Amino acid sequence: MQAPIALMLGWLSFGSADITIDEAVVFYPTFASWDAQQSNWLVSVHGAIFEPELDSRKRAVLIHTLRGALRIDKASAEAKLLTQRLQLFLVDSERGKTVSIQLGSQQHQLNASEPNGHFYGSFRLTEDEAEKLLAGPVRRPAWLPFEAVTNKDDQRQFLGRVQFVTEQGLSVISDIDDTVKETFVTERTQMLANTFTRTFRAVDGMAQMYRSAADKGAVFHYVSGSPWQLYVPLSAFFAEERLPPGSFHLKHFRMKDSTLFDLFASHEASKNQAIGDIVTSFPRRRFVLVGDSGEQDPEIYGVIARRFGDRIAAIFIRDVTNEPKESERYATAFRDIEAARWHVFSKPEQIQSTFLELFQKE
Q1: What distances in angstroms separate CA 90 from CA 33, 60, 165, one per listed residue?
Q2: Does residue 116 share a domain with residue 72?
Q3: Burial of 145 per CB tally in 10 Å (0-12, 13-18, 19+)
Q4: What is the CATH classification number for the domain harbouring 258?
Q5: Does residue 76 share a domain with residue 23?
Q6: Helices within 168-290 (DSSP H only)
Q7: pLDDT digits (tens, 9 = 90+) for 245-303
Q8: The pTM is what?
Q9: What is the largest CA-CA distance in the chain?
Q10: How many Cβ atoms sit within 10 Å of the Cβ of residue 151?
């Protein structure tokens, strides 16, 4: 059973010099990359600040509407889960708020939050500073926790973490929906039910395969069309399934601009941008791309592979649309890419040995 929303929000904290008691802050996992030209670490931080709207009329109307559309009984467990997950979409995003974080003895102020409540920041650490914080040299990828700076009389904490990724190695850039989590994006009603009213279900075998790769030193980045509002239940799902931790790169979505039926609309441009930024951040690393055929992953990954050449070691596409590797779609998507570099599979066991051999060669 996944944790109820109250527990999943337990690691959120309320309050700071610029954050009122009725506001919440969440940090998303990010990465730090080594800048060889400046001989220091570039550390990125990303989070959001918002005020939960637990009793708004808009929230009640939306819950009633979606519950009716999915034919869910008001007293059912599905209705309870629907209410919990929709809370994350109906918050009051706070703009112009400034958050600072504490790393060791240093404080770093982040940029003011944007209209959607998201805030970002980056700063640099020398090699010595990073080694002191991590209690040793960065020879393997390592996670560094941090916390927000709060008023001295406020004992509450809200925590985040950033992964320091070594210059060389093999990284996995993975989609989430229908790649590691069953969502059925191609079927609208199933997609909404699997997103809002059902316990998240893993794609059989994917977590085990990913764990084996992580044991061999793989670093993970999860780039998905899922909205940031689902990060909290997704992170609980990742922990329960023991999926390797990694940086998250999700989609910005606001109810005032869209409807829930637009949740998994085309995100080709933003996903291309996110993946390109990750690959560019690590010029000496190589990457494995894993996705599915339900959305634009083949087309996006083909563009990325042509752009970065042999830095893309391999591509794996989970078939959820019953299209063989010989189909016209794949021929177009992977034009000019060697057939041995891209693979189509239905079950992880079909590609597990090929997938894991990549990490043995590094």
Answers
A1: 34, 10, 35
A2: no
A3: exposed
A4: 3.40.50.1000
A5: no
A6: 188-196, 206-215, 231-241, 268-281
A7: 999 999 998 776 666 666 666 678 889 999 999 999 999 999 999 999 999 999 999 99
A8: 0.91
A9: 64
A10: 12
